[in-house]
Amino acid sequence: MKTIEDLDVAGKRVFVRADLNVPLDGAAITDDGRIRAVAPTIAKLLERGAKVVVASHLGRPKGAPEEKFSLAPVAARLGEILGKDVSFATDTVGESAAAAVAGLADGQVALLENLRFNAGETSKDDAERKAFAEQLAALADLYVGDGFGAVHRKHASVFDLPALLPHAAGDLIATEVGVLKKLTDEVARPYVVVLGGAKVSDKLGVIDNLLKKADRILIGGGMAYTFLKAQGHEVGISLLQEDQIPVCLNYLAEAEKRGVEFVLPVDVLVSADFPDLKGKTPATFDLVSSDAIPADKEGLDIGPKTRELYAEKLADAGTVFWNGPMGVFEHPDYANGTKAVAEALLDSPGFTVVGGGDSAAAVRILGFDENAFGHISTGGGASLEYLEGKQLPGLTALEG
Fold first, then answer.
1. 288, β-bridge pairs
2. Would you call 107 a catalytic residue per the annotation?
3. Which helix (H) or strand (E) holds 104?
4. Active site residue: 199, 305, 364, 390, which one?
5. Residues 13, 34, 229, 307: which is the catalytic one?
6. Tens digit of pLDDT for each residue in 340-375?
7. ω into residue 162 within 30 of 0, thus cis?
8. Separation CA 339–CA 313 (nearest Å)
9. Measured at the alpha carbon of residue 121, what is the angle toward residues 115 and 122, in degrees to the nearest 5?
10. Is 357 a catalytic residue?
11. Model pTM?
C-alpha cells in the first residue's frame, strides 16, 4: 500500500477521502476527534503544495440533501484546526464543487458537501456508483484514502474512486492498519479483549474470531445480559437478544474448550427507570449480584466488584483491545464501569487500543487524556470487521 510520501503532490489537486462523520447537536460539534485525526494528513499535503479537496459523509441521508446532515459546521472546525480558511462547496459534484476546486491555489483546501447527498455514493448498483466516482475523479489528479471509519463500506468514494486516479493511503489509515496488525499478527500476550455495547449480534463475528486469538475476553454493557440469560440467570427488563442465547452458549463452551477466560459481570447497577440523558438528573438504582437481577429492573452498568475484577484481568495485559462501553456512560451515575475500564487501560503495561465508536467517544466525554492510550481508533465498525478477518473494500482499493 503506497503512502502519501510516494506521491508527487505539488501543484496537484489531491482528493482526500476523510471520515468527518462527527456527532452534532444542532450545528454544534460535540466531539471533533475525527476531524483532528485527519488534519495532520491534510496539513502535510498542504505544506507540500497540494490543492486539497476533502470529502466525507455525515450521518445517513437518503441520497438527497438534508440540512441537518450538512458538513458546513465541519468546514468551520477544520479551518480552526488547520489554522487556515477552508472553502466549502454546497454540493458534491455540481457547480459549487467545481468552482471551489477551480478557485484553489497551491496550499489551499476545500471541503465538499456530504457525499451521501448523492445516491451514487452508497448505491449497490456498480454502474451508478462508478458514474458518481467518475464525477468525483474529474475534480482531482490524485486520491488519498484517509477515512478509516468508512473503509469497510463499498461506496463510490471509498472503493470505486481509487481505481480511477493514482492513489495512496493517508497517515491515519497507515497508522490504523499498523495498529490492527499488532492485534492480529504481532500480538504481545496476555491478549485481553473487552467488549461492551448494546447487542451481542453486533459482535458475533469478532467474538468468533477472537476466541482463536485472545487469552481473556471481558464482557460488559447491554450485551452481557444475553450471556447471563444463557447461563440461566434472571435479567429482568435488561437488554436481551433471546435469539442469540444459543450462540452465547456456544461461545461459552468454545472458550472453555480453548482455555480462554470468558469473564462476565458479577454485580450490576439496576433500575426500573432508564436515566434522563438530557438533563442528567440523579438516577435511582440498586446494586445487585448479576445472578439476582429483579424481574422488574434493568441492568445499566457493571458494579464495583466487576470493576475491580476487570481491572485485575487487565493488570498484566501485553495487548488490550476495547470496544463498547460497560453501561449507559452518558449518565454520570452509570459511567463508573466505563471509567474503570478506561483507567485500567491507562494502568496496563501493555499496548492498549480503544476500538472507536462509543468507546472512543466515552474516553473523550469522560475527560481522559487521549494520548495516554496506545491508540484510539477512528473506526469502530472498520476495526471490528478487520478483527473478524474480513476484507475491507477501502483497503483493498488502496492496495490495488
1. 268
2. no
3. none
4. 199
5. 34
6. 999 999 999 999 999 877 888 899 889 999 889 999
7. no
8. 15
9. 120
10. yes
11. 0.90
